[in-house]
Amino acid sequence: MADATLIGPQTHIQGAISGDGALRVAGRVDGEVTLSDLLTVEEGGVVAGTVTVREAHVHGRLEGTLTASERLVLAPTAQVIGTLSAPIIRMEDGALFKGELLMDIDGPAPTVTSSAATPRASSTSTSSAARPTSFTTPRSAAPAAPARPTPPASTPVSVTPSRTAPTSAPAVSSPAASAPLTTSATTVAVVVEEPVEEEILTVEAPVEEEGQIDRAASETLAQLSDEALAEYEEQTVKELREELRRRDLPVSGTKQELIERLVQSQPEPS
Amino acid sequence: MAETIIAQGITIDGEISGNEPVLIEGTVKGKITLDAQVTVAEQGVVEADISTTQVQLSGNFTGNVTASERVEITPSGKVVGDIKSPRILIADGAGFKGHIDMDVE
Looking at beta carbons, which residues of chain A come within 8 Å of B23? Predict the structure, then answer.
């Protein structure tokens, strides 16, 4: 795969851009963008038109329709007007958005891959510090949105609304097309399709922050083999994830959840 | 050093305009109007009309070039089209088919 294509700040492209590589736009693109890779709209960059990509990180301005097949990230400097579709969305404090947000709310919960976890670990350490305003957890949204399926039983830890981000109250996006979000310059609350895993990824760096999770998790864990636990506790999160990957299990979650998942899949320590 | 770089796997179908240099390693079809150097790299494939100050063609180029300063076709360049520029350099080994007009006001 080629290096990223860069549209410089003084360059304007009108037409269609397509290809297999990554694209960074610091200038202006009017038209269509179709990539099988990552689109980055740099701060100061403008993309207007129809965008169909695998993944998009918006730090600048985007107008039109964006469909990301894997994930979409709106950075604090993002200004977006239009229709966004993605299975996983992260909107950071400061991002401006007006339009429609479409997520496959009735579909199966998307699996967050480990490759998605890695870049976020570095970028989320800042957002973790300002954590409370990232986005709403669906836990709090669940009562407010009756059409939403109850939190999937497959998540290893049954987390109660005690995890709710403090600013979640006002704006909850009800499913699909019917409720366009309008935001001011303050926080935007976005309902994220993949509830627990997404939330947890945000805080995977400072695991200690999640005292609430650990407490709930440890109750479940107490039922499991102490021996296996001790074995896993000694390993680092990285090693645990490698083990999970070897067994073809999802690698998201706090250390406790990873341990629990390993123990559940194979009680004896490996 | 080019500011805008169109990498190899990317195809642009439309118009490119701007004030900064553009390096094309991918495919461009349409029109390029700039105020700076346009470089078509060896892997680049361009079917477009170019209007700018300087052009360096090392790849496949089909179209007309109007350059207010100079045009250079390097040994790996293969050019079909008309060139209008006060200064033209065609290296040994380059391929060229078209008209040349060096009388640019």
Answer: none
Contact status of B10 with chain A (Cβ, < 8 Å): yes
Which of B1, B3, B12 would you mutate first to test chain A, the one with the most A CBs within 10 A?
A: B12
Cα–Cα distance for residue pair A264/A266, rounded to 1 Å: 6
| Shortest Cα distance, chain A CAs vs residue B47, angstroms | 14
CA dihedral A186, A128, A164, A213 (to 10 degrees): 180
Residues in chain B within 8 Å Cβ distance of A15: 12-15, 30
Length, in residues, of chain A: 270
Q: Do A15 and B12 touch (CB under 8 A)?
A: yes
Q: What angle do CA A114, A40, A28 make, to 5 degrees?
A: 170
DSSP notation for A202-264 = HTSS-GGG-HHHHHHHHHHHHTS-HHHHHHHHHS-HHHHHHHHHHTT----S-HHHHHHHHHH
CB-closest option in A6, A20, A31 to B9: A20
Pairing of strands B22-24, A88-91: unpaired
For every one of its 270 residues, what pLDDT tens digit does chain A have, with 9 covering 90 and above? Answer: 447 899 999 999 999 999 998 999 999 999 999 999 999 999 999 999 999 999 999 999 999 999 999 999 999 999 999 999 999 999 999 999 999 999 877 777 666 654 444 343 333 333 333 343 334 344 433 343 343 444 444 444 433 444 433 443 333 434 333 434 444 444 444 444 444 444 444 444 444 444 444 554 555 555 555 666 777 777 888 888 888 888 888 888 888 888 888 888 765 444
Note the ipTM here: 0.88
* Closest in B3, B14, B25 to A14, CB measured: B14
Which of B11, B16, B22 is opposite residue A19, by nearest beta carbon?
Answer: B11
Distance of residue B22 Cα from the nearest chain A Cα, in angstroms: 8
Take residue A114 and report the two structure tokens written for it.
């480990």
